Target: Transcriptional regulator
Amino acid sequence: MVSSKDVAKYAGVSQTTVSRVLNTPDRVKGPTYKKVMAAIDALNYIPDANARSLVQQKTDTIALISGPLYNPFFVETTTSIVNYANENGFKINVHFSKNENITDTYHSIFENKVDGIILSSILLDDPIFEKLEKSGIPFITYNRKHESNKNFVEMDNEQAGFLAADYLLSLGHEAICWVGGPLEISTFKGRYDGFLRAFQKNRIAVEQERIFLTDTSKEQLRETFLKMEMLEEKPTAIHAATDAIAIQMMDFYISAGYRVPEDISIIGIDNVEIGQHASINLTTVGISSPANLGQLAIETLIDMIQQKNKPCIQITKTVRLFERKTTIERRRV
Model:
């Protein structure tokens, strides 16, 4: 295997000069730089990336901790993050993590040096946030945030939940079921609070038997559907906390012989691309800007890395309703 010592000998320079060409080329005179690069090309020398990162104190690598791929939101945001990072000279180490293996994921990231961390898996009171701050590594959360209210990019989740519920209520639906994830997660907590605010505004009581909190897996959502089927008064509308939940509930209802929206109206939150497909046409609430939260977060993180400072980032994007074909005015009997 060719070494930097071989390159130095071939070019007729010192090994230190070869190191400078690779790590601080702006400090090397033009003719010397060209001579060393010619030797590298002639010998087909491949620099040791780990050694270079030790010298430069940078790896050009970012760690991403994303949510599960059964949620199209994470498919879209991961794609945006990876593409933007690559376009700007960074590699992405992607970890798709659930709560049960999140500790191992964090250990893996801290053990391997990275220039930045972008994550969507944090809980409101997550103790890992303090470790992230103490690590000295620039980081940002997206879609979720910590209770400290620092370093996040999110949509206005409370307003999103409000707009979705208020819209269903305006269509005459009162027997509305809420289906969402754990309230220890800021995304679900904010959207649930907005759901409650809409009912308060319309002076309608929330029936606790219509509130369903799950782990959002397909199995748990199926159990939720079966529980809703057993309600004495079946719902006329579903307020899903995410588009992924909404689309899965649509599948259960249609498979059971229901018509959407004639028999059951369904609304989601996130405005994922698949929900806009003509065969789904999901009514939903999403951010007003064309870029998704992953794109906004990676742009912000790379700015933090390149500026070499760690300001407190607080970005909450405004939201709006996207009225499509899965909701309809409640039919009066």
Notes: The first helix runs from residue 4 to 11. Residues 51-56 have pLDDT under 50 and may be disordered. The chain has three domains: 4-55, 61-155+290-317, 157-289. Residues 157-289 form a domain with the Rossmann fold fold (CATH 3.40.50.2300).
